[in-house]
């Protein structure tokens, strides 16, 4: 019976290897000396938005989730 799950296990292992492998290889092989330009925000990134930016995003996501749950409970996401 367990041999029926081997393809699923193999699929998970290959997916993890493809997803995690390049990150680990980059972490091991890449130099660990980033300069200030590399660490700076790119294009429209902000430096030091702090707690205000964090809580603004939390509130935005909470409103988004409440709307999603409302639509879900009303049945608007059900397909015929």
Summarize the structure.
The protein has 80 residues and is mainly α. Helix content is 66%, strand content 0%.
Folded structure, characterized:
The chain is mainly α and 80 residues long. It has two domains: 1-33; 38-80, no CATH class. It is built from three helices and no strands. The protein is flat, with a radius of gyration of 22 Å.
Keywords, separated by commas or semicolons:
80 residues, mainly alpha, 2 domains, 3 helices, 0% strand, flat
Shape: flat
Give the CA-CA distance, first to last residue.
Answer: 36 Å
What's the count of strands?
Answer: 0
β-strand percent reads under 5%
Structural class computed from helices and strand pairing: mainly alpha
Number of H/I helices: 3
Largest sheet: none
User: Total domains, how many?
Assistant: 2
Set down the secondary structure blueprint.
Blueprint: H1 6-29, H2 36-39, H3 50-74
């Amino acid at each position: 019976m367990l041999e029926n799950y081997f393809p699923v296990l193999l699929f998970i292992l290959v997916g993890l290897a493809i997803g995690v492998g390049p990150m680990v290889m980059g972490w091991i092989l890449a130099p660990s000396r980033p300069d200030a330009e590399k660490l700076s925000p790119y294009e429209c990134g902000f430096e030091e938005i702090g707690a205000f930016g964090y809580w603004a995003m939390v509130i935005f996501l909470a409103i988004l989730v409440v709307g999603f749950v409302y639509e879900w409970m009303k049945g608007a996401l059900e397909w015929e």
